[in-house]
Every structure is written in C-alpha cells, then in structure tokens.
Amino acid sequence: MTLRAHMTTTEHDHAPPPSAPAPGSDAAGPPRTGGDGIGDHRGGDALAALRAAYAAGRLEAEYDTVRTLLARLPERQLAAAGQLLARLDRSLVRSRHPATPTLAVRITGQSTVGPLVAPLTAQLARHGILLAPVVSPYGSCLHDLLAPRAAAPDAPGLTLCLLDAHTVFEEVPSPWRVADVEAAVRSRLELLGRAVRTHQEGDGGPLVLNTVPLLRDHTHQLVDLRSRAALGAVWREFNTGLLALAQHHPGLVVIDLDPLIAQGIPAYEPRTAVYAKARLGDRLLAAYAREAGHLARARLGKTRKCLVLDLDGTLWGGVLGDDGPDGIEIGSGLRGEAYAEFQRTLKQLSSQGVLLAVSSKNDADNVLRALREHPAMPLREGDFIQINANWRPKHDNLRDIADSANLGLDGFVFVDDSSFERGLVQERLPEVAVVAVDEEPALHTPALLADGWFDVTDLTEEDRERTARYRTEAKRRELREDAPSYQEYLNGLDIEASLSPPTPSELTRVAQLTLRTNQFHLATERLRADDVQRLCARPGHRVLAVRARDRFGDHGLVGVVFLRRDGAVLRIDNYVLSCRVFSRGIESACLTAVLEHARATGARSVLARYLPSPRNAAFAGFYTDHGFASEGAGHADDDACFFRHGLHTLPPPPAHIRLHADFEQEHQP
What we know:
Blueprint: H1 44-55, H2 66-70, H3 78-85, H4 90-96, E1 102-109, H5 117-126, E2 130-135, H6 141-146, H7 148-151, E3 158-162, H8 166-169, H9 178-201, E4 207-210, H10 216-219, H11 225-248, E5 252-255, H12 258-261, H13 270-275, H14 282-299, E6 306-309, H15 320-323, H16 333-350, E7 355-361, H17 364-373, E8 386-390, H18 394-405, E9 412-416, H19 419-428, E10 433-436, H20 444-449, H21 461-464, H22 466-471, H23 473-482, H24 486-493, E11 495-500, H25 507-516, H26 529-537, E12 541-550, E13 553-566, E14 569-577, H27 586-600, E15 605-610, H28 622-625, E16 629-633, E17 641-645, E18 657-661
Parallel strand pairs: 1-2, 1-3, 3-4, 4-5, 6-7, 6-9, 7-8, 9-10, 11-18, 14-15
Antiparallel strand pairs: 11-12, 12-13, 13-14, 15-17, 16-17
Helix pairs in contact: 3-5, 5-14, 9-11, 23-24, 25-26
C-alpha cells in the first residue's frame, strides 16, 4: 500500500479520423497497477487518503508523491492538507528524499501570523518544496527587520513580513481625524523604509512585504463622505509608498493584496481579528500563501519556461477536423471572443519570454492554415517555437518539444480541455505542470494565471527576445541535419564568444541565470541581483559574464563564471551556462581562458567546486574531462566536490570558436 500516484481517466479529447494512425495503447488510458494507496483517490477522497497515510506513518517515506496528490485537491482543502503536512518530521523527509529542496521561511508581522503556516506548507509542497518555518512572536515585525542578525543568525531563504491596518492605526490617537492617519502613514513609511534598508544591508535575505487593505470598519468611523474620500487617498499613498520600496531594494518584493481582495476574498474576519489578533482572514492568508509559493519557486530556480497548448476546445472552440478552419469559434460571438481574449493573454505572456508550443491531435496542414489565415486569430504561427499537430500521444509530443528546445520537462506547463489527456500527461510526465480548462473559455485565463508558473522577480531584455531566439534554433537544426559531421556543423555556426565582467545593466540577467539554470549549473547557488553586485565589488572576487553569437543571431548573455583568488590558488566557485548553448564548445573555451588567465597571473593551481544536484549530474565529469584531478569532498556542510588543475598542460581551446576574454576590464556597478 503506497502513495504512488495513479490517475484513472475515461474520456478522450478528440478521436482521430479513420485515416489517421491509431494512437496505440494510450487510447485506452494508462495501465492500472493496482494497490489501494493514496494515489488511487481523487478530489475529496484524496484528503482522506492523505490523513490515512499520515496515520499509518507512510507520509515521510513517500513525500515525493505528495506534490502529485496535492495537484488533485480542491483549493478549499489545501489548508487542511497543509495542517497535516506541517506535522511531518522534516528531518526524516530530508533524509528519505535528499533531492527535495527545503526552504527556511521566517514569518513575522504586526499581528498573529501563525495561521499562515498551514496554507504556506501546502503551497510549497505543491511545488515540491519542503517548508521549514520560523514563526516570530506577535508584533515582532520591526524588531526582526531592524535587527535581522540577532533575530536570525542564519539568514532564512525568505522572510515574510505581514502588514495589516493595525500597522498604521496603532499609532493613531483616539479619537482621530484624517490628518492623524496621514501623519501615522508617513511615520510608518519612513520606519519601514529604514527597516528594509537595515535588513538588506545586513544580508537578511529576500524580504516580502504586502500592501494593506483599508477596512470599512475604519472608513465608516468617519460620518462625512468627504473625510472618507480623504482617508482613501491617504491610504492609497501608504500602499503606493510600500510598492515603491521594491523599486529601490532589489531584495524586496511587495505582494499587492488588492487583486486578491478584488476576487471577492474578505480581508479579515472580525472575531478572529479582535479575539486572536489575527488581522488578515484565513482565505486572504491562503491566497497570500499561493503568491508567496510562486516567489519561493522562483527563488529555487523552479520557474517554468514553456507553455504547451492543446488547440480544439483550448485555443479555439469547435473541432478543427470537423468544422474546418473557417468554422471554428474564435473572435466572434460570446464564446469566440472569450477564446480570442485567452489568446491575447498568451500573446502577452509570450512577449515577456514565455515560450509557446502546440501539442494537438489534428492534421498539421489544417492547423497551419487556421493559424496563418483565420482573420480573427490573435496568435499566429510565428508565436510558437514548435507546432506538433499529429496523432501521437501528447506526452510523446511534449518530450519531442523538450528535446528540440533543449529544456527539461520540469520547465513545462501543459494546458488541455480533456481530462483524459491531462491525466495521461500527469501519469507519464509527472514533472510537467498540468492546467485544467473546460468548456467555459471565459475561465481559461484565470485557470492559467492562478499559479503564476512563469513569475520572475525581474524581467530582462533576454526574456523579451527569447521566443525569437528559440525560433532561430530551427535554422541551426537544418544546418546540423545537412552537415556531414557534428564538428562540421560547429564549424559552420561561426561562433563568437566573449568573457568579461558584467555591466551594471546586466546584473539582473546574471542573477536570473543562477536562479533559472539547472543543468549546466555546477555549484547550484541561487543569487539575487544585489548578491551579484556585492560579489562584483568584493576584493579578490571576479564575476565574468559569457556572451555568444553565431551566424544565425545573437544569443546574448548566456553564462557566468564566479572566480575568487585565494593566495596562489584561483578558485572557480561556480560556473553557469544556459541550456541554449551548451555542447557547442563555449563552456570549454571559457574554461580554457580561465586557466590561461590563472597561469598568466602567477597562480599555481585552479580549484573548481562542483555541488551535485538531480539536474546537473550530466556534467559531473566536466572538470575531469578538462584535465582537473578530483580532490573529493570538501569540509563544508554541503556535498560539494573539488577538482584541481595544476596548470602544467592546458586543454586546447576549441578551434571553431573565436573567444575574446577581458579579465582586466572593470565594470563595477
């Protein structure tokens, strides 16, 4: 009896026409494996099964299956699941599942914040993250921020500081006027600004604040409407000031609660606010926990990159094979306009670096005709990096798209209106995030955006150009297919690369590479832009950006090398390279340049650090392949291994790459 996930599915989206090849055994759904474990339950039964597994003592041992289970729970049951998961022995979970990332989160605020733990535990577990919460005492928010080292000698991975209306009104006299609130707002903004600066300068780690709802209980203590309007203006000034703090502090994120409350979520519950001093309601805390979960996921490099879409019933209404390109629902009528609005949302996401692809059981010619010619279609063929319209199982199409884009499947989100297809993908590719949509197209956009799969802290120009860059990969693939050998393919690319310190405007991109790259990330350290800035300015340290281009276009900033001089030893603390460009020799050319620089500047050896992770295992031999000798594990608490190069015989640089290395130029931010 196990937790192993299993989906039972009974409906197919669209049967292929008689002339199409049969999908094979997948048409009958995934094979059953038997068992009465937690994975055989769905919906409400899943929570009961989770409780049974906990009672039986199996939950820690099978924690790796919890994420799949939580994906099937209704939203209203996630907090209850979180209460159960919060009771687990975290040390046992970590020992049984060392690949599961643990995130230490300090939760503090101006009121009772303990109720956030359960929903936050569930939200992080949904993304495969184990929460290690540290809950501060009541009202200790400012103390925690103004003295971060005293409050947390080991800086947490994330600090959540919950603000509520009491943050301001505790400074307002009784009775009060709008002018008193205005004075308190300005005082609090100044104090919070100072607290944020102190927290960030003390390297307290990423910090999250929130905007504060203005309660009717406060506005309607004023009996004249003009004063209420003035109070509303003052309160908006307060929230504007909070949001502006994030523009000046790279390590700060401010979650805006207004969009959550606009969904009909009450800001508070009067009885718990008065009796328990829990001044944000449970439903609002659950919605906040979802947003915080997105931040945690981005912090650990789990942001998704590619959105794969079904067509019939998802991008447009009707069945293309039956109705023809002119008969599908898009652009006109209530449902057609809803589908068009969904496509406009997708186009907006694509403009910010989200890669779009298609996996559809359809005739390819019909699909291309619809995308190219339908007058009301917001999305066109050029908006997609790949269109797989065929009769293959959709999980095979997803694998094909991942291989073509050189992306891991854990960077994918799949959207389909068929429960059969969604279940099959969940069964065969559990690392893919699956979004359910149905026959109501007006709800497609809320369903897709609910989980912020593509949220990042900052957006770069490389993000905006990502789709165009991936589309040029088709031209590179054509060259590779036509080349007699892989080396002749590399010779034909005409690759140029550079290695030099990043400019101030490139710091965000450097940080993003450490956050989002998982495969060629040899020490797996996640950094923010301000972390990179500090390293650039630190004596003995050097951050080198890798940029590349070839005959088909400019790849932009695709890698970073972190160096540190330690006496006669040059240390490579980390080496990161985008999956878009590895296996083309750029990684070897830059490493050779580092070794040449070390020898030219009098170093006796180069010591490189490699920290194994589930995703970078393919590059465990990278340093030994380039003449380094293994020195085994170090003395740190992690599992890092070290490799040393004596600089006697250097590996030759790849002949097909023209590399310009500039170690002396300084671009101090």
